[in-house]
Design goal:
The chain is 58% helix and 0% strand. It has 57 residues and is mainly α.
Length: 57
């Protein structure tokens, strides 16, 4: 299983889209809620860091 999400530097409107999609998938797969929360928080932090610090492509 592979999913690809594009996160662009400087595009704060899309920050959080990937983490929301992953959260939905993990819930559908019946992953334990604590694991879902930790994963989604880490992914969201990564997205925000990309948006805040990466050059716009």
């Amino acid at each position: 299983m592979e999913f690809i999400y594009e996160v662009d530097g400087g595009d704060f409107g899309k920050a959080g889209n990937a983490s929301s999609a992953v959260k939905k998938i993990l819930k559908q797969l019946n992953v334990h809620p604590k694991i879902v929360k930790r994963t989604v928080v880490a992914l969201y932090e990564a997205e925000v860091n990309i948006v805040a610090h990466a050059y716009k492509a």
